[in-house]
């Protein structure tokens, strides 16, 4: 698979001829940009919404991740509490069963032993 990827990359990055009108297109763009001087304030105004949007998107993603994490943490705490309650109930049931087994064992032992 790595070999296929490398071959695809090589084909995509092979040098290509820009065409006969390449120099003309570059010069026309240079002429257009020379007529419109770009000031720093104009460049900043054009660039500023995109980084802010990225930060807002990153902050929202972080909030969503934190919310999901908190929900999972709460669910884990509830599961641990339920497990603790189930353990306590099981220990109580085993204690009752053990008491009943001891009563039955004592009764059987009395019936098997001859009266003195």
Care to describe what's here?
This protein is mainly alpha-helical and 116 residues long. The chain is built from 4 helices and no strands. It has helices spanning 2-12, 22-35, 40-47, 49-112. The chain starts with a helix and ends with a helix.
Short description:
This protein has 116 residues and is an all-alpha fold. The protein has a domain at 49-112. It is built from four helices and no strands.
How does the SSE layout of this entry go?
Layout: H1 2-12, H2 22-35, H3 40-47, H4 49-112
Kindly state the mean pLDDT as a whole number?
A: 84
Taking all Cα atoms into account, the compactness measure Rg is: 40 Å
Distance between the termini: 90 Å
Reported for the largest beta sheet, the result is:
none
Task: Report strand %.
Answer: under 5%
- What is the tally of helical segments? 4
Low-confidence stretches: none
**What's the SSE pattern?**
HHHH
Helix content: over 70%
Secondary structure: number of strands? 0
Structural class computed from helices and strand pairing: mainly alpha
Shape field: elongated
What characteristics describe this protein?
4 helices, mainly alpha
